[in-house]
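Table S2 (continued). Query chain:
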Amino acid sequence: MMDKRTEFYKKLKKKLKKDTKFPSKYLFKFIIPSDEEKMNQIESMFNHAGAVITKTHSKTGKFVSLSVLVIMKTADDIIVKYMEAEQVEGIISL
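Corresponding output:
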């Protein structure tokens, strides 16, 4: 049986291939603990991609919401970015 993550990525890939004409702008959304190092990790993932990154701090200041708008070449590239992002401790991908 596939785990939830594998299942999630399979469904996402299918949906992307169906709904998206590549290359295409894609909006990644992440919530991370308010931590400079973690923000830098996410930013460096998209460093050379010409991404537009918007940060919104939570009311309590404990979390940061990051929206990353970037042109992606394929559905697989999007999946790879999500998997890379999973390496950031405490991240939530939306």
